[in-house]
Design a protein that fits this description.
The chain is built from ten helices and no strands. The chain starts with a helix and ends with a helix. It has helices at residues 2-51, 56-68, 72-85, 90-102, 106-119, 124-140, 144-164, 169-182, 185-199, 202-231. It is mostly helical and 232 residues long.
């Protein structure tokens, strides 16, 4: 009996050791791969710097590499170099705005997007990007009044974006998300349903379910308060 018990313990110990060694090997493998990826990115970055970028594409690629290394000031400088080559390319202003967003300098990001808008006033993605930035700015403000004002601005540009491209499911989804942030749940539900109808987006389905739950919770809370007031 003791011999059998001892064998069982030995088997359990062996299994634990195998699992431990296997888990350690997997972690080690992932760490090595991550290290190789970082080294590759750094090598690509150094090669591009040594190459002395000369074209818009070079500067934009360099800017994105700097962003991946969280060197946002250098990224901004690279995008500015691209802009000096062609100040009429709206995409460059979009890249600049994104770099400023990483630094949470939303006012500067808004200025860059508005410059892009002047160059291409019919691009729905520019309007939606501006809406997103106003939304991001609203998420860090502590003033309820300012938050509402920023979300109202975001919705103005998001609605314009959807009007320019009514068959784009992504734009409907983004509009729905901003409606939800503003507390306009009925409008959010309509936008999510449009996004689902166009593309059957999994993300939109998830957001729709969440918005419906919030709406139902709000209605339940309202009805409870109404009943309490009647009792009084």
């Amino acid at each position: 009996m003791n011999l059998f018990k001892g064998k069982k313990i030995a088997i359990v110990v062996i299994v634990i050791l195998i699992l431990f060694i296997g888990g350690y090997s997997l972690i080690k493998f992932n760490l090595i791969n991550k290290w190789r990826y970082v080294c590759l990115k750094e090598r690509e970055l150094k090669e591009l710097i040594n190459k002395e970028p000369k074209t818009i594409s070079d500067y934009i690629t360099l800017g994105h590499m700097y962003i991946s290394h969280k060197e946002y000031d250098k990224a901004i400088k690279s995008f500015e170099e691209a802009k000096s080559i062609n100040p009429n390319n709206p995409d460059i202003y979009m890249h600049l705005a994104n770099a400023y967003c990483f630094k949470e300098k939303f006012n500067k990001a808004i200025k860059e997007i508005k410059k892009a808008m002047k160059i291409d006033s019919s691009n729905p993605n520019i309007y939606m990007r501006l809406a997103d930035i106003y939304g991001l700015k609203s998420s860090i403000t502590t003033s309820a009044k300012e938050k509402e004002s920023l979300l109202d601005k975001a919705l103005t540009y998001a609605e314009k974006s959807v009007n320019l491209s009514p068959n784009d499911p992504f734009l409907h989804h983004q509009l729905g998300f901003l409606y939800e942030q503003r507390g306009l749940l009925n409008k959010a539900l309509i936008s999510y349903k449009k996004a689902i109808k166009i593309s059957n987006s999994i993300l939109a389905v998830s957001q729709l379910k969440e918005a419906e739950e919030i709406k139902n919770d709000s209605l339940e809370a309202y009805n409870r308060v109404k009943k309490l007031n009647k009792v009084k």
